[in-house]
Amino acid sequence: MTRDLTVGSPMKLILGFAVPTLFGLLFQQMYNMVDAMIVGKLLGSQALAAVGATGSISFLVIGFCCGVCNGFAIPVAQQTGAGDQAKMRRYVANAVWLSILFAAVMTVATGILCRRILTAMHTPADIFSNSYRYIFVIFMGIPATYLYNLLAGVIRSLGDSRTPVYFLALSSILNIILDLVLILCFHLGVAGAAIATVVSQGVSGIACLVFVRRRFPVLRLSREELSLRPRLCLDLLSMGVPMGLQYSVTAIGSIVLQSAVNRLGSLYVAAVTAGSKVTGLLACPFDAMGSAMATYCGQNSGAGKLDRLGRGVRDCSLLGLIYSAAAFAAMFFLAPVFVRMFIDPEETEVAALVARASLFIRVNTAFFFPLALVNIVRFSIQGMGFSPLAILAGVFEMLARSLVGRLLVPLYGFGAACYASPSAWIAADIFLIPACVWCIRRLYVHQSGRTPERRRASLPRVRRSHT
Predict the structure, then answer these.
(1) Does residue 228 belong to any structural domain of this protein?
(2) Domains: count for the chain
(3) Does the global pTM surpass 0.90?
(4) Burial zone of 216 (CB within 10 Å; 0-12 exposed, 13-18 middle, 19+ buried)
(5) Residue pLDDT, tens place only, 49-91
(6) Which of 114, 269, 328, 360 is positioned for an S-S bond with 275, CB 3.0–4.6 A?
(7) Nearest to residue 339, comparing CAs of 262, 405, 279?
């Protein structure tokens, strides 16, 4: 049930790995969209705005959890590529111990601080109570987030991108059912939507754990392999914490921007919420490409096959360019159709809400190729083992979003907010692309003491005969 990504055509391997991952991400985004659609249709635009107002703080915390788990999976992928299964299992065991610690600390801390954070973000008074109910429940589900994402990351590191999809599908279906039951039957409002998300992810994580124990013999740990090893923990932290902080640093800019949008009023918050749900769904292929490149580069760098790294990045970037053009063309015409799925036709100011959300979608999809490069290049760098560089990329994104939120949104309003994410993606690419070239060079130097150019220059030249 594992796959070797160190042999064969990079384009075919990346596509074969990314497509199942894409289906999983689509399931995840679909149930996020269904959450928003059910809330917007059944509870109204204010409830939709209440959920949307928590988006940036949720990304700050939940993004850190996912980033840490993805980082913990990098040494697993590298040892898989190197063929050292015993060391791979020891990394998995220590990742479990660290995840338990992180989950406990973060659940307590966020539960205590979430009300203060919403206040600091200038959450509108008419949606504050619903925003608090929703995000508090989400934070209490942090252990379930760690359980699923750690297991999914480890499985993908072994080259299996299909198994996590099955459990995301289970989670998606269960989440939709629970949404309807808890909101329509038990009248729990936005808290019901949050409970549905947490419960469905917890069930998916437990099912994934049972499946792994039965179907992945390579992950059956001995008593000796389960022991805590400080050196391996440091290795895992050096990968996981920078990846988690990269999400969190990026989210700081999103919080600044969300605060600026919150001051515009709940109508604009609802427009950004609806637009973000659509663009999040459309951006799933880029997340799948990033996940594929993390495992691809992790296995190939672990196996010492450095010539395949640049080829993989180029091939995946071509896929990203083709999809970006297609997505923008589709949304140029269809954005209003997607937005209306989130809005009750009887709501007041429907036309204004549709127009603003459609503008948000069109502007963001116009800059999808820079987003594709952010995911492809950043995850490639992390797969090579240079996770701390991801923090710097996050800093560039944070600064760009913060400048737009602090300076441009107060001056130009909602239109400026539409360009916040594109400016962040471009800023990150300015750093990431040269950084990726540097990382590949460093690996060559570490392996042979020579860069690719010096190695080619040292090869004997073939003289051509002139006849």
Answers:
(1) yes
(2) 1
(3) no
(4) middle
(5) 788 778 778 888 998 999 899 889 989 988 988 888 899 999 9
(6) 360
(7) 279
